[in-house]
Structures are given as C-alpha cells and as structure tokens.
Amino acid sequence: MKKGIHNRIAAMLIAVLLLVLEAGGGFFACVRKASAESGEDKPIPTVEAILKGGPAISATAGVVMEVRSGAVLFAKNATQSLSPVSLTKLLTALLVLEEDNMTDTVKCSYTAINGIGSKVTRVGLVVDEKLAVEDLLYASLVASADEATYALGEHTGGSMRKFLKMMNARMEQLGAVNSNFTSATGTGKTSQTSCAYDLALVASKLGQRTDFLQIAGVKWYQIPQTNLKEARTIAQTHKFIRQTLKYDFAIAGKSGGATEDGAYNLCTYAERDGMRLVAIVMGSASDEASYDDSITMLNYAFENYRSYTMRSAERAADPDYAGFFDECKMFTGKDYDTLYIDSTATVVVPHGADMTKLYRKVEYSLPEDYVHGENVIGQLTFYYEDSPIGKTDIIYYNEEYPLSQKDFNAVWPKFLLSPSLLESTGGPGTSTVVKLTGTKKATPTPTPLPKSVIRWEGTSKQAAATRAGVIFGLIFLAITACIYIVAPMIAMKRAPKNKLRRH
C-alpha cells in the first residue's frame, strides 16, 4: 500500500514539475536569452574614437564623449568590463531625475540606513528621516552618500528589486554594450560590472540636463532641517569642482571611488568654446592619477575637435542643401512643424575636416500608438567617414486623438471612476463618451472622445498564457493532492478497523 502511495506521489510531483515548466516557459526562455546575450555568443562591439590614437593615459580605460552628440572623441579599452564603483550613482541619478519630482518626499527605510554595509560613505541620515528628492540627490552626487542613494532607489522603484530591473532596462535603452548592474550605489558586496563607454552614455544623457549640472557643479550644499535632524552641510568630493585641484574648464563631476584592488574611477564634465564634454576614467592607479588622466583626455579633445549644430554642418557640407525636414511646413500645409529634429542637436568633427565627407543615415522605428504631441519615430545619425559624429531623434508632432492608454490615464481626473470601469450602455453601436479635462502637453485643448476610439492596452498574450498556466497548475495540484494523498491516507486509517471486523 505504502509503495503504491509513494509511486503516486512521485508521479504527481513529476506532473506538477512539467506543468510549472510549461507555464514558466516564457521566463526560462528569457533567462536563456539573457545568458546567451551576456555570454561569449554575443561579441562586444568595438568602440573607437573619430580620430585614431590619442594621448597616453595611465588608467586601464577611458572615454571622452561630446555630451549633445554622443560622439566618441577619445577611447582606450572603452568596452572592457570593470567595476563602476561609485559611478553607479550616475545611473541612479538619471532614473530618479527622469521618474520623480524634486519636491517628492522620501522616507528613509531601515535597510537604506543599516543594510548597506559598513565601508560606505554617509551623511548621517537615520531611519524614518524624511527628505526631499532634491536633497537626497545632492547628498548622493555631491557627497557620494550611499544611504541617500539607496533611499532614492527604493523610492523610485518601489522596491530595490524593481529599481535594479529599471537600471538594466535603461542601460539597454541607452545602447550599453557591456554592463550588468546589481546595486544602486556601487559600493558594498556587489559583483556588478560596466565599462567606460556605457558610463559615458549615462553621463552624456545627464550632461544635457540643467538640473543635474546644477547639483553636480556645487562646492557644497546645506541639507535643510528634517523631521529628525538639524540642518547639515555637505562638501563636494570631486576635486576640480571643490577646487582643491585646478582645471579651468570643469563645470561638474562625480567622484568614482576606488575598487577593492585600489583602482580609481572619475567622471568630469568640461566646457570650452561651446563644446561640452564628459570624461570617464576607470582603473587609475591612484586618485591623483585619475584627475591627471582626465585633464590629458579633455585637453586632447578640445584641441582636436570642433562641434557644429546639425543644421550648420549640413550647410557647410552643401551650401545649397535646404536642411533636414526644413520644408515640412510646405509639405503638410500646417502653420507649425509636424516633423522635425532638435534644433540644438550637434555633430563633432576633427579640426580642418573635409565637410563633404559627412553623410547621414535615417532609421525609422514607428510606435504602435501615436500619443498627442511629440512622438519619436526614428533617428538621424551623421557620420564622418565611418565614424558616428552625432545622433538625434526624429520627432512627429501629432495633433490628433485618440490618446494612448498611458497618456489617457495621465490626464484622467483621480476623483472620477477609473476608465477601465466605464462600459458602453444602450443598444448596438452606442458607446460611453469620455471627456478629457486637460493634457500634460497643454496644446491643443482636448475634445470629448468616444470610448470606441480609445486604444486600450491589455495584458500581452504571453503574460496571459503564463498566468493561466500557473492558475491551472495550482488547481491541478490541489485536485491531485486530494486524489493521491488525502484519499489514500484516509483509507489507511480505516484499514485496521476493517481487519478487526474480519476476526
């Protein structure tokens, strides 16, 4: 009897295992895909500067990138896998600035204060202390405070696990080639890796934001009094910005800390003659060497390159060329542009370059839903010979409705019923009329919309199938347990009584 029960239990466990594997097939496929992409099967692309060669630096790796165009002006071991240490905080800051408001209030959790290790940088925050996002960003970027950075990650992601997913997803969007982030701070016990090129992508995106440059460019900052602490003053850790070391063109920066092996990292922003650069140094032998390497790289870039707006570069290459999308108004008949690029977008070319060697590449990636207002529909990239020297988005301005589900939810008044609860009433062909009260982009004023023309975003087929598989698996498990475990156990309990009756 016992042997039969054991066989049934084994069969049940095998069946459940197969069911779970089938239901979670999408998950395991994603894991296999991620492993393949991060392994040897996917070669890491080479990143080279426009001009080959350049000055010698002592650091293991370094990159200089022009902030607005993303052009690489100097590169040494640009994609080599190294520890980002505190330069990780640049990515955390980018996500916080993109997702949160400066005035949002953050409450420091127990984990943010006590769960980040002992060998970290702190500014004296305590559990349950409440600070504005802006104040925590100053603490993170100016003083490199780890507890402030962790608190920001928790706040922005909802949990640290979700925030880490956001970090890696954002890196993929930026075009990173060799990064894997497992920490919001970069300190403590973490095996995360990145490379100079990937960090330059993050830094160049930040370098286009005035709010970031304001924070990362101050010598000191006073955190106001909070619910639990008096006001405190923090000092800048980047020596160019604090001016304990001198570099005239430095405008902002982030100290990078040191790895366990004593290798130093550094991020420095500098501007000269209208060209804004960011230099990433990784693996310098000392703190002083990281600043020396930064000066060497930045001076080389300033002395050998010149920046143009894309429009002026087009005219320099061909005086008779009207300009990309300049005639869009005539084409559409509108009194405003419906197709355009950023007027401040730049390209960078070597001094004395033959501008006739410039060429451009247009790539379209049309969205499934067009929201009201600006829609990115592709990219325009300029090349000098074979090197990319500038890239910008192609924008389509859509004045029409319907809105996408995301934008519709953003303008729907919170005091009204959720749009998902609204259903058509009446006979066939009728629908509920939904009135919009405004839009984040302010122009033009929204008009009433029938629900029938609103595009609703639903659960993907894969997610729905996985969810259904899990639910079915749970039901199957419960039924199987009753048949093969509960019923035989009841039978076993009754068996001795039956034997007594036979005697």
Keyword list:
503 residues, alpha+beta, Beta-lactamase, four-stranded antiparallel sheet, disordered C terminus
Structure description:
By secondary structure, the protein is α+β, with helices and mostly antiparallel strands. The protein has a domain at 61-308: DD-peptidase/beta-lactamase superfamily (Beta-lactamase), CATH 3.40.710. 38% of the residues lie in helices and 20% in strands. It is built from 15 helices and 17 strands. The chain has helices spanning 2-23, 25-38, 88-99, 110-114, 133-141, 146-157, 160-174, 196-206, 210-216, 239-242, 287-304, 310-317, 328-332, 405-411, 461-502, and strands at 61-66, 72-76, 105-107, 130-132, 220-223, 232-235, 250-258, 264-272, 275-284, 305-309, 339-341, 346-350, 358-364, 373-384, 387-398, 433-434, 449-450. Strands 2-1-9-8-7 form a 5-stranded antiparallel β-sheet, sandwiched between helices. It has a 4-stranded antiparallel β-sheet with strand order 11-15-14-13. The protein has a two-stranded antiparallel sheet with strand order 3-4. A hairpin with a 5-residue loop joins strand 1 (61-66) and strand 2 (72-76). The radius of gyration is 29 Å and the shape is globular.
- Poorly predicted regions: 13-40, 422-461, 497-503
Number of strands: 17
Give the end-to-end Cα distance, rounded to a whole number of Å: 21 Å
The CATH superfamily of the domain at 61-308 appears as DD-peptidase/beta-lactamase superfamily
Assign a percent range to the helix content.
25-40%
Content of β-strand: 15-25%
How much is the average pLDDT? 80
- Envelope shape: globular
Oligomer kind: single chain
